[in-house]
Specification:
Elements (H helix, E strand, L loop, with lengths): L2 H8 L16 E4 L2 E4 L5 E2 L2 E2 L11 H23 L7 E10 L7 H16 L6 E7 L8 E8 L1
Parallel strand pairs: 5-6
Antiparallel strand pairs: 1-2, 2-7, 3-4, 5-7
Helix pairs in contact: 2-3
Length: 151
């Protein structure tokens, strides 16, 4: 089933590609791979989760934000790939989580991104991943997601 049909079946619309917040491009293609810049959980130009996970942002809200950021990353990759149906496989996911010092559930937060990719791409969404706790992210976002996909 084409990915676009799967998205429709799931009731998911790819968002417009988020405008960069600094001097970079949202995604770039190298050979048969597309690499995205870190994507934040923007919906209609607004961040959905601001602050540190484990304090101002609950783990559940961070999981939802990771899902949103991953969807934004898919949109950025699809734009460079010539459409979402040209994405053949998700290779790598990096999820950064702005965390309070005692918060250690970064992998659970990253599952928000990984689970979305599995729903959308099926077996082609299985990937390697890093889940990294950091002190702060751009615009005080709670999460940031990067993708590498095969096209």
């Amino acid at each position: 089933m084409p990915v676009s049909d799967r998205l429709a079946e799931l009731g998911i619309d790819l968002p417009p590609v988020a405008a960069p917040v600094a001097a970079y491009v949202p995604a770039t293609r190298v050979g048969n791979q597309v690499w995205t810049s870190g994507q934040l959980p923007f919906v209609d130009g607004e961040l959905t989760a601001v602050g540190k996970v484990g304090a101002a942002v609950s783990q559940d809200d961070a999981v939802a934000a990771a899902r949103t950021a991953a969807l934004n990353a898919v949109a950025a990759a699809a734009e460079v790939a010539g459409g979402v149906d040209n994405i053949r496989r998700v290779l790598k996911v990096v999820v950064f989580v702005a965390s309070e010092p005692g918060f250690t559930a970064q992998p659970a937060v990253a599952n928000g991104a990984s689970n979305l990719l599995g729903e959308v791409f099926g077996d082609a969404g299985v990937h390697v991943r890093s889940a990294v706790g950091v002190a702060v992210l751009p615009l005080d976002s709670a999460v940031e997601v990067e993708l590498v996909v095969e096209v």
